[in-house]
Amino acid sequence: MKSGWVDSDAARAVDEYGKRGVGRDLALRVYTSRLLGRDPALVLHGGGNTSVKTTLQDFLGDAVEVLCVKGSGWDMATIEPAGLPAVRLEPLRRLRARDALSDEDMVSFQRANLLDPAAPNPSVETLLHAFLPHKFIDHTHSTAVLSLSDQANGTELCAEIYGDRMGLVPYIMPGFPLAKKVAEVYEAAPDIEGVILGKHGIFTFAEDARGAYERMIEMVSRAEARLARDRKRGFAAVQLPNRVAAAHDVAPILRGACSIKDAKVEGAWHRFVLTHRAGDAVMGYVNGREVARYSQEGVVTPDHTIRTKNYPLLVPAPDAAHLEAFAAQAREAVGRFVAAYQDYFARNNAGRNPPKRALDPMPRVILVPGVGLFGLGRTLKDAKVAADIAENAIHTITDAEAIGRFESISEADLFEMEYWSLEQAKLGKSVDKPLAGQVAAITGAGGAIGSAIARRFAAEGAEVALLDLDPAAAGAAAKAVGGGALGLGCDVTAPDSVRAAFERVCATFGGLDIVVSNAGAAWQGKIGEVDDATLRKSFELNFFAHQTVAQAAVRVLLAQGTGGALLFNVSKQAVNPGPSFGPYGLPKAATLLLVRQYALDYGRDGIRANAVNADRIRSGLLTPEMIAQRSAARGVSEHEYMAGNLLSREVTADDVAQAFFHHAVALKTTGDVTTVDGGNIAAALR
Ligand SMILES: [Zn+2]
Prior knowledge:
Bound molecules: zinc ion
Largest sheet: 7 strands, mixed
Distance between the termini: 73 Å
Number of helices: 25
Strand content: 5-15%
Shape: elongated
C-alpha cells in the first residue's frame, strides 16, 4: 500500500482550513482522515475513525484541552472539521477509573462534554482514543490486516509480522472495556506504534499527523507482504450447470422469496431492493467448492453485522433450463435461513433483561454460484452498502483462505454487535415511505406526465426506471429525479426492446412491482377516410404496446409471487370520442378493455390492473400551439379552455401522477378507471 501523503496538499489543507478559523492540528487531521477514507481496502461506508488531541477555546473563551474524534454519520473519505466534534478530554480520561460503564451512559457522558452541543455523537471508540496519550490516532478495518487476524492462529501471525512494534489485543466488543484493555496493553509496552484488535482492525498512533498515517500504511503493507507469501492457488471451483440462469431472471425469484407478508395489511408486502455484483473476485468466491464453509463462518469485522447481518444466504446454482426448480430451492433456502436466524435470536436473547427486539429475519447478502452476489436493502442505496461490504469481506476471506483458514468471532459476539443496545435504540424511529422497497417502471417517462409520475413515485419511496423512446430524454428525466433513478431507451412497440428494458430493470433493482404503461401518441383522421396505415400505427402504440409492456411486467410479477400493479394511461377518448379522433380513441378503448382483462386474469395472483383517464393536460399530446389554436377556435381564453370542466380547474401532470400513486397503494382496487379531468359528464363512465 502506497502512502498518499503529499507535502504540498497537507500545506494547502492547513492554509485553506486556516482561512476558516480551523487550527493546524484539526486541518491535518482532516487531511489524513481523508487519505485513509478514500481507500476501500482500509475503511468503508463510515467504518474506521481518527482523532487528534488539541486545544480549543470554549464558549467563554477559555482554552480547553479537547479530543476531536470522528462523529457518527460522517464518512472519512469526505470528512470536514465539523465531522470531528471536540470533546473535553479531562472528563473523558477520568472515566477510566470506573469499573464499568454502560454504552448508554458512555454516549450521554460524551455528549455532555461536547464543546458544541449541536455536534454529532462522537464515535463509540472515543474512549479508546481518549485513554491513549498520543496526539494523532488512526483506526481502520484494513482488509489485509483482517485477513491475517481473522485466523485461528491470527495472534501468532500478527506477532510474527509485527514483533514488538504493535500491541495485540484479543477480540472485545467496542466500548468501555475495550478502551481500558487497549490502554493497559499500551502502558505495558509504551514503545508500541499501534495495536491490532483481533478480528476487528488496526490502530496506529504518533505525535504528528503524518507519523500516525505513515505507520498505518507501513503496517498494512507488512500485512500485504505476508499475504503475498506462500499463497495457495485460488478456490477450486464447483461444477456449474451448462447454462447458468442470468442475474435478471434469478433476482426476481430471490426477491420474491425474501419478501415478507405484512401481518396487518392484507395484500401488502415488506420488500427489498436487490443489487447485483459479479466481478472476478466475487465469482471465484461464490463458485468455490468450499463456499458453504468459508461463507458461513461470520463477518470479517464486527460492525459489518449491522449492514450484512450475521451470515449471508447461500443458494444453489440456477440452471437456466430449470428455473422453476431453482425457485423451489430458493424458497426452501430462504425458509431455512429464516428458521436458523430466529433460532439464533431466541438462543442469544434467552434470559436477557430487557429482552432485545428481533430484527426482520431476511438476509442482506445472497451468494449464488455461477451468478455472483446480491446485496439487499429497503432502498437501492442500502442494498449497495450491503453489497460493497460483502465484496470487501470476500476480498478479506479470499486472502485469509489463501494463507490459512478464515475464522470469525463467536456467535455470541456476533449477536452482541447485531443487537447492540445503541443500534436497538434506533429501531422504529424512522417511518417507511408508502412505496419503500418497491420498484416502478414508467413508459413515456421523458414526457411531462411520465416524468411527473416518476418524480412522485420516487418521492413516495419507490426506486424508479424511466423508459422512453428517446434515450436522452429518459436519461435527462432520470437525472432530474435523482437518487438511483434509471433512464432507459425503450421502443414499447418492439417486444425485443421491451424485454431488454425489463431485464435491465430487474438487473438493476432486483425486480419490479409497479408498471405505469403511459407512452402514447395521438393520430387524427375522419374514420371513414383515414388511411389504414395511420390507424394501424396508432393501434401499435396505443394498444399493442400496452399489451407488450403488461405481458413483460406480468412475467416478472409472477416470478416474484408478491402481486403488483399494472397501471395504464388510457384517455377520455376511450369513452367519449371526439370528432376525427377515431385513430386515437379506438385503440384506447381497446386498452380500457385490456385493463379489465388483466384484472380478471391475474386477480388471483394479487396483480391489480387499473387505469387513469386524464384529459386536457399540458404535454406532448397537447402543445402550447394546440392550446392557442383550440381556445381561439372556441372563442375562449387559454385558461378558460384548459379549465373547461365542471370544477373550472386546470388539470396538471402532477394531478395525473397523484391518481397513479393512489392506484399504486390502493391494495383492494382492481379493474378500475379513475378520471382526472376536472369533471366531464359526457366522459363519465357508466
Ligand atoms: Zn473499528
